[in-house]
Amino acid sequence: MRLSLDLAASVFPRLQQALQTEARVQLELFWLRDPRRHAVLELRMQGHWPVQCQRCMETMDLVVDESVRLHLLQAEADVARLDENEDYVVLDEQGELDLPEVVEDELLLCLPLVAKHEHCDEAMPLVSAEAPVVEEKKRPFAGLADLRNALQRDQDREV
Ligand SMILES: [Zn+2]
Q: How far does the centroid of ligand 1 lie from the alpha carbon of residue 120, in Å?
């Protein structure tokens, strides 16, 4: 299921309060099942939001183009089924999702902590708080199995 929306930012009170000016939000929502059959909500958020540059105090155009995948969990404990880097929301007792609330939370995350023009930012570069963490899955015994198979093949050949 897919839903496309083009909304005024004022639909979201907390976002409106942060922006303090008229803006629009384009949303695309997809409900899907991932390969493990988990229910997932994929949310794409786009917009050009006028925000104030915190260095020169002029208005700047913040280009928002973010996507998130949220696993829809029946209970907090289900988080054990997810990988560490997977996002999720927990449904309420009725198994329902407060969609406007969830979407607004995600929209607020699109706002930078401190908005700055790129050219205004050069003097003092910020270190991204969201540097991707590359984590390799450790399978300590996989190498052993390969080794054993290789040895086995060698032995078979000798026989
Ligand atoms: Zn600026």
A: 5
Distance from the CA of 112 to the center of ligand 1, in angstroms?
Answer: 14
Spell 66-90 as b/e; 16+ CB within 10 A means b.
eebebbbbeeeeeeeeeeeeeebbe
Predicted TM-score (pTM) of the model is 0.72
Show contacts of 6-9: CB within 8 Å, 24+ apart: 9/47, 9/49
If one counts the domains in the chain, the total is 1
Mean pLDDT to the nearest integer, 23-37 = 95
For residue 64, report the distance from its CA to the centre of ligand 1, in Å: 17
Predicted confidence at residue 155, as pLDDT, reads 60
- Quickly tell me which residue has 């996002």 as its tokens: 87
Q: pLDDT (tens digit, 9 = 90+) per residue, 95-131?
A: 999 999 999 999 999 999 899 998 887 765 555 555 5
What does the alpha-carbon distance between residue 118 and residue 116 come to, in Å, rounded to a whole number? Answer: 6
Could you list the residue range(s) of the whole structural domain that residue 43 is in? 2-158
What spatial distance separates the first Cα and last Cα of the chain, rounded to whole Å? 59
Asked whether the CA dihedral 99, 100, 101, 105 is positive or negative, the reply is positive
Distance (angstroms) between ligand 1 centre and the Cα of 128 equals 18
CA of 39 to the centre of ligand 1 (A): 42
